[in-house]
Amino acid sequence: MAVKKVVKKKKKTLGARGFSSGASREMSPLRPRHVEKKPPCHDTCPSGNRIRQFVTTIAQAERLEKPLDQAFEEAWHIYTDTSPFPSVCGRVCPAPCETECNRIELEGAVNINKIERAIGDYGIEHDLPLKTLSEEKKPQKIAIVGGGPSGLSCAYQLARRGYGVTVFEALEKAGGMLRYGIPGYRLPESVLDTEIQKILDVGVELKCGVKISDMTELQSSYDAVYVALGAQQGVSLGVDGEDAPNVFSGVDFLSRFHHGEKLELGKDVVAIVVGGGDTAIDAARICKRLGANVTVLYRRTLKEMPAIAEEVEEAIKEGITIEFLAAPVGFRKENGRVVAMTAIRMELGEPDSSGRRRPVPIEGSEFEIPASAIISAVSQQPDFSGFESLIEGRDWIRIDDEGTTKVDGVWAGGDVTELGLVTHAVGHGRRAAEAIDRKFTGTEAENNDMPLIRTDRMQLDHYEKQERGVPAAIDVDQRMDAIDLEVNLGFTQEEVIEESRRCMSCGYCFDCEKCWLYCQDQAIDKPMQKGLLYSFKMENCTGCKKCAEECPCGFIDMV
To answer: What is the predicted pLDDT for the residue at 23?
Structure first.
């Protein structure tokens, strides 16, 4: 009779959460480490706003048993540490931060812009003051030339550090293009006034109606100068006949409108759009509210149009006609006034140096549009009178990453360097202020570089799909009744919370517990207090990498 050999199998022991203890597994020399990473929203925000932090502060309020008012106030202070304009930018910024949001790979970017607006409006409603960073009154004095977003951003950052700051503004009120270039239906004047007042309350001196015509006088009286003139001069079309009295530049038209001037436009208005930017769309929508029939010409397609997409969509809803792939070539006049515009059809050719496809005229495709007024929104430029010494060759003012110009003791930013968004101007002002502070204190810039987190380091299947939130807007018929009636409504408080919870907290822990749940070696301690980071017990770790592999947001590295 054959004897059956009995082989005893080693019994596996289970850890506290039902996993094998891994006693028989091979050890790895790698060990887990928390490594915070930069989310794409932060990386693409020209203002440098810490978007993940202020969004997750609201998103996690309930889990952390934090009162909602406290969460909104904390979020407001996180935001205003880098920019004093949350309500303003929440209305007028085209949100470059959203273009690279990792959530796009699920169902769409987080609506950061509308969360931003809600946080800003909370700060206004609850009269929250901007925080200072130093109680010390420092001896240095700084002059800021220009009271637009860049100048005010720089002034705020310097004043909160204890410096004496004076802003010189040529016009009767501060705000620059925020005040004189953006209509009230997009940015109510009361919102702008309130956020500017908060900056002044930090200790900024504002002198309006003062045009600086000689930079050297400032250099002799101040320890540093920041030049933020803005770009409020229109650029001509270069088309015969545009000297007629019923042809306006876009910035001139908007400025005259904001100053209360009565504009005789007639019934049919053609807004000439070569750049296709926000100035053109704003001018067209104002004309519509003044009772005109409006046609916008743009030499490329909708896809290439740089104006905020939401504003273009609203313009079309309001009955504004947009002629794409068309450009002006001449005007027909009667009695010295333009009565029609001649345009030509275009087609997109080869890409230019910027990578955009160059529009090419189609021979024999000319057509005429009757017009009682023309608004040329080609571009705009600064008035450099008194600051010519800063210009370099054919360029405007060149600056480095800290806003330094070629003239010692003079920094610059905003549209005097190149035409950009409000958020670019705000970022220029902050970075220049920090550089000025470092010069006076003799300190070095902190190295805050973090690796960028993309979805290849994340576990997207952890996140439930949830459609992007979009706030309501005033009906088209109703919005025409009052020219400054704000069209786009913000999120309700409930909508803000829902949208903030779509944030995936890319690159930083949001307490999903997965590292703790999947650890087979009981090498991770769950904190007793919510909001604290999980800790590693290296004496138990075998380097299996499970915690890093299962971390949805990519916060854990194996090193």
So the answer is: 47
Residue with tokens 């003799």: 442
Q: DSSP labels for 356-412?
A: SEEEEEPTT--EEEE-SEEEE-S-EE---TT-GGGB-TTSSB---TT-B-SSTTEEE
Give a yes or no: residue 114 inside a domain.
yes
Strands (E) in 202-241, as ranges, are 204-208, 224-227, 233-234
Tell me the C-alpha distance between 327 and 532, whole Å: 59
Both 159 and 87 in one domain: the answer is: no
Count: domains in the chain: 4
| Claim to verify: residue 223 and residue 355 sit in the same structural domain | no
Stretches where the chain sits below pLDDT 70 are: 1-25, 271-275, 394
pTM (2 decimals)? 0.90
In a 3-state reduction of DSSP, which class is residue 187?
A: coil
In whole angstroms, what is the distance from residue 18 CA to residue 517 CA? 9
Q: Are residues 373 and 250 in the same domain?
A: yes
Give the residue numbers spanning the domain of 543. 9-36+508-559
Report if residue 414 sits inside a domain.
yes
| Residue pLDDT, tens place only, 138-168 | 999 999 999 999 999 999 999 999 999 999 9
